[in-house]
Structure formats: C-alpha cells, structure tokens
Amino acid sequence: MAAFDQRILALRGSREQTDAVVKAFAAYARKVPVEGGQYTMDHTAVVYLMDAEGRLIGTLDMHEPRETR
Question: Who contacts 2 (Cβ-Cβ below 8 Å, separation ≥6)?
C-alpha cells in the first residue's frame, strides 16, 4: 500500500473474511498466475464512497467523466 495515498484504507483478513467482503460489495477478485510461480490479481476497479458512519453513499469508476471525480 506504500504506493497509494495514505488516506486509502487497506483491509486484510482471512480468505473467508475477504470472500465475504467481496460478496458484500458485489465486487470481483481473481488470482491470476504469472511466470515464476508469482501471481497478480484481477479485481473490481472502483472507489467506494462511504460516509462517516460507514454507509455506502456511492461509487466512482474509471469510466466516469473527469468532472465527476
């Protein structure tokens, strides 16, 4: 996460916890093997906008007009 803005919160958990969050947000994530036994992740690329109480208030994705961001 060092490559991202410090305001971005990275969530971590067990596989079961991660799967539950992916499902709760109707997101997508898939491990993609690459050479040398390594892997990358194919995943939903959206910013979830949450209010101070943790409620979802909207999303932003890369297809939105620049003025929206």
Answer: none
CA distance 15 to 13: 7
What residues are paired with 61 via a beta bridge?
Answer: 46
- The answer to whether 10 and 1 have CB atoms below 8 angstroms apart is yes
Q: How far is CA 55 from CA 2, 35, 59, 63, in A?
A: 26, 40, 12, 23
Contacts of 31 (CB under 8 A, 6+ apart): 39, 40, 41
pTM above 0.70?
Answer: no
Residues 23-48: tens digit of each pLDDT: 998 899 999 999 999 999 999 888 88
